[in-house]
Every structure is written in C-alpha cells, then in structure tokens.
Amino acid sequence: MDEDKYPAPSSRRRFVKGIVGSAAMGSLGVAGSGLTTVPTNRSGVGGGSVKAKVIKNTDGPANRGMSQIPITVEDGALKGLWPTAVDGGEVEDGVATATLGGVEYSNKWFQYCGIQTHPKIAPESEADNFLRVDNGSDGSITYDWQSELEAGAKLTVDDFADYEEWGNGVGDDGLGKPAAANWRSVEADSSLPVQVIRSPEIERLAEDDEWIAASTEKGFIAWLNKCTHLCCVPSGFKQSATVDGAANAVYCQCHQSIYDPFDVVSKVFTAFPRPEE
Ligand code: FES
C-alpha cells in the first residue's frame, strides 16, 4: 500500500480530548449542524470578530477556510511567525496583533475548534515557534517520506529539496511537497496541528501578492490543520485520488471538505474567547 495515499493511524480522539475538550465542544453547542462560527456567550478573553487569511474552502460542508500561519526561515529551519515576533507587534486587550504584508494578523486567527483553550495560544505564552516534525501524534496525518525524520525535530528547507519533482501518486507531481508538523507545542500536553507545503506555485504567487510575499518564504506555506466544519484534523494535501477536486488540494476525510492551499482569501469569523488566566 502506498501509505502516502492513505492516512496513517490517527489518534484524533486523544487530540479531541486533549485540546477540544468537553468545554470547547460545549461552546460549539451545535454538534452535527455543521456550524462552527456561532457566537459564544462563555466568558473569557480575546475573542470576537476577526478577519483572517485562510486557505479557501472549495467544497464540502466546511463554511470557511483554515487559518494560515505566516512562515519564515531561520538558520535553515521553518518557523511560524507569532504576532509579537513581527516588527511592531504588540499585545493589547488580550490579543497579540501585528501588521504583516498590509494585513492585520493576530492570535485570534487560531481561536476556534477548542484551540483557544491551548495554553500556547495565549498572546504572551513562550514558545520557540519552529515547525517540528509530527509523525502521527495528536491526530496528524503523516507522509511516507517524513518517516525518516525524527519526531520533534525542526523541519528544514533541506527536507524539501525535491519539492519541484515530488509526488505520491495522487494528483500532479511537482505541485508541492507536504509535511505534517506541530507548532508552539514543545512541552505542551497537546499539539497544535499544522500542515506545510513547499510549492513552486507559492513562489509564483508571492511575486505579485503582498500578503503571500510576507507570509511565505522559499515557497513554504503553512496553515493550522484544523477543519472548520467539525474540527477534524484533515488528512491533508494530495491525500485523496478519488474525491472530485481533492487530488491536488487539501482533503478532510471526515465529511469530504476540500481546501485549496493556492487560493488564500480573507474571511471574517467569530473567534472564541480564551479561558480567563
Ligand atoms: S469535513 Fe467535517 S470535520 Fe472536516
């Protein structure tokens, strides 16, 4: 079996228990309805309406895209940019905000599906911000090629050296090389699931899009890999050869939502508040 075509065994249930938790699912309050951006009346800090850059939802029941994580490269390793690490970034009223590529970027982008309860999503929480290899923990789906990497190691540019040719038998070769990772998760009880790809298409888009130029580097684009429908961790990029429109896109195996990582759009949604500290 070509394991890159099929999700590796998933520990999603453990992730749901660890991050989403009963309180967070309760705050959704709409299990089975497909709604995820409903307002919440739970108390907390740093929630409310936010406009985020997301990889576009193109099919299926999800009602918006998944939030992009701006990427930089430091000493050859991939790093997600936290708002306070951006020049001029600040924390005000419980929200970390910065202007990047002409866009207001904040930690509110990630406050949905229970992620808002993760301790490392608080604006001033300490984290090294490197994208680290995730070989299947907390529900992430891995790719065959990354089994040679050590779990928890920093993902590096060199790991993606063959990105212009890479293929896994699904969709078109050379469109981009993906990896499952986690972010801001060192010494945390649970992981923030991330998917990253390196693609010539992203390099091309960065040539004439201010936001893409600022939020990607060397063709790398990343997003919080948490489906906005009912909070599954999607199997990811080039993981379904059979579902229409999924072969060269990001696929959520739970209810067949599809996302296009090469179409980044702005989307307004209601971020859930974080618990009071
Ligand atoms: S499509 Fe339902 S959780 Fe992803």
UniProtKB/TrEMBL annotation:
Top-level taxonomic group: Archaea
Coiled coil: none
Domain Rieske: 183-277
Key word Iron-sulfur present: yes
Keyword terms, alphabetized: 2Fe-2S, Disulfide bond, Iron, Iron-sulfur, Metal-binding
One GO MF term attached to the UniProt entry: metal ion binding
Protein name: Ubiquinol-cytochrome c reductase iron-sulfur subunit
Species annotation: Halosimplex aquaticum
